Amino acid sequence: MTTIDPRASLSDLTTTADRVRRSVESVIEGKPEVVRIALTVLLAEGHLLIEDVPGVGKTMLSKALARSIDCSVRRIQFTPDLLPSDITGVSVFDQQRRDFEFKPGAIFAQIVVGDEINRASPKTQSALLESMEERQVTIDGTTYELPSPFMVIATQNPVEMEGTYPLPEAQRDRFTARVSIGYPSPDSELKMLEMHGGASPLDDLQPVAHAHEIVKLIEAVRQVYVADPVRRYAVTLVGATRNHPDLRLGASPRATLHLIRAARASAALDGRDYVLPDDVQSLAASVLAHRLLPTAQAQLNRRTPEQVVAEIVQRVPVPDPSAGNWPQPGAMGSRGL
After folding, report:
1. For the chain, which domains are there?
2. pLDDT, position 332
3. Residue 169: count of CB within 10 angstroms of its CB
């Protein structure tokens, strides 16, 4: 039986992830933390929701990440008249064969870019539920497997914008993390004018990693060690959202699973083969906040889910390394992203 050196795997991971990061940052200026979360979600086998006002680069970020990897990419422009079959596919009767033939929809790709997902009706949004959770699509009683790696990168405008539908709770819960790009700094905006003035930088973007490399990196992330105190810490954080007075809906057990998966990926990006509480803390807001529903009183008081998560992180005690079976610091010692 051949054994795989985890250090070699994580060394490959940081090298490949660094190439992808630099490729995306050549298009998205001044937002390294957003690019890192996108990479973290990719390696955690998750899906990313990018929410912000129009014109800040949501679609540009999703396209840049997709084009940096040599894999199949499909883009779906969500509109009010989009049908579920446009996403999943449809069975068409073939007159010559006298039988039904399945025509795959846009979901049959390794990276699916869903632009302005909350402009489609809830019925159409629900077409993504099975594919995002089970990585398969069932049409007319037949189940079709989706390729690997598989990631949905969806953009949406805030619900206050005209012509938007709020994403249902089940849909939001399937996104591993939500990020907001925000407005660029003046220096980044000046550089953007220089780069984007003549042509789109996406036109010159070339793949810097192959799909099979990403699959190997995902396997390496799965091997990252999570000590029992860290797992208990994540469970306590998520559990605290379920009885918080400012929330009428807390995070689900799926959120706990996504938080640990994302923490594994974050640790691997830092060159570590073990997870620290800091990994969980740094991702708590991005992974949990979009799943939470504040109470009416909290909304009147302008309390956001992000503020509630930050309060919970401050309140929940961080596990003591001396109390559990923790790996020695510096086990990897390689430079992280």
Report:
1. 1-223 (3.40.50.300), 225-328 (1.10.8.80)
2. 43
3. 12
